[in-house]
Design a protein that fits this description.
The complex is a heterodimer.
Chain A: H1 2-22, H2 24-43, H3 48-80, H4 83-89, H5 94-124, H6 131-155, H7 161-172, H8 174-188, H9 193-222
Helix pairs in contact in A: 1-5, 2-3, 2-5, 3-5, 3-6, 3-7, 3-8, 5-6, 5-9, 6-7, 6-8, 6-9, 8-9
Chain B: H1 2-7, H2 15-25, H3 27-47, H4 61-88, H5 91-123, H6 131-152, H7 157-187, H8 205-253
Helix pairs in contact in B: 3-8, 4-5, 4-7, 4-8, 5-6, 5-8, 6-7
The chains are: A mainly alpha, B mainly alpha.
Chain lengths: 224, 254
Amino acid sequence: MTGSVTVVWALARKDLLLEFRNRDVVVAIAAFSALVLAIFTFAVDLSDQNARVIGPGVLWAGIAFAGVLGLNRAVATEVEQGGMDALMLTPVSRDLVFMGKALGNFIFLALAQLAVLPLFAVLFNLVVFRWEMLVICILATTGFSSVGTLFAATSVKTRAREIMLPMLFLPVTAPLLIAAVEATASVAIEESWSDMAQWLQLAAAFDVVFVVVAALAFQYVLEE
Amino acid sequence: MHTLSQTEPTGRHNPFMKSISLLRDWNWLLALSVVLTALTLYMAFVWAPTEANQGAIQRSIYIHVPVAWVSMMAMVALAVFSIIYLRTGRARWDRLSAATAETGLVFGALMLLTGVIWARPVWGVWWTGEAKLTTALILFFIYVAYLMFRTYFPPGAQRQRLAAVIALIGAIDTPIIYWAANLWAEAHPPVIIGPARDTESAVGPEIGITMLVGAVSFFVLFLYIVVQRYRTRCAEDEVMELNRHVGATQAAGA
């Protein structure tokens, strides 16, 4: 058990170190989702009532789209420079390789959200800094990073991978997007835990199913 | 006749002739489909009475519901074939999966199209956030992604495996999508302002029977298209294999 944790952390640490040196992924995700938020401040009318209705959807759609771009970048670098082949040579099981990559991507997405959420609060005049929001972000990011890691590795060898990843990722994560948007809307009108319980349950169920499924399916992606 | 068979003694063994005769073998399915389609059209437009609440537009349900059933069944079949492929690794299950997905996508598109046409006069809106609609739309896009992946990924065993994985993920996702869409529809009650808003139509025996005949008819059509598509794929793979062989022989000769 401790061995597995060491392996997963070693793999994630490698990605974080790489990211710390070039800052490709986190900056790309944060900048793009910030841009989506900024565009929507003038693309739609954000009077008080509108912001509550539209804001959560814009936030999570922005994060999902930006996340796709970032994940594409993260995996493409790995494959182009032969990192994936090297990972396959390491004597650890495939699901641990998956967990390591997914943990790295989780941290990238989480860091980008840390930058984007204050901007969202300012631009849309909505309350987001509450414990509920932290739980929503963790649940959404877990699902996004596990499905995203699997599909980014799946689509990396396709022609037109920039379009292939979102085509796979967005429909499959639709339930998670719905849950995150609805729960965030609850937070924005300052409802309590029990009002958003069903959305959190849905997101948690999605995460449990897809962390397991993606970890099991990852071996098929690595196999040549 | 006799001389002809003597001039072409290898006719039966010629792969082209063989495939022609196989093609002929499946024509009974096409004939059955034609008969059933004619029967469905007759029942839908002549035999079944006009429904009281919705009027003539209700007759489009005899197309919409069977097509929707078949497209859902195709999704289940796709998942089953993909599991069998992952367990056995035989290319025929992959070809069958591809044929099922392609045909299923066409039926899915027909389902959405006929549904939209029906909803406008009956619900007063083309589209609404109803749970089944949302689920069907998301599943349609998963079908599209599956087929796009098959087109974009370089051919070979890895493509077959990954395509099967994508199909399985779509199948596993289906109940979660429906759950999410249901919760969403509860939180945002769908807009329905047409004649069907408060009166639930009474389903007479004619309506049910016509729908069932329609379902059988579209299922036979589906089966026929899948069989033909499967056979085309076999031929395509064979041509690719032969091309590779020719290429290798030429390279060896040069």
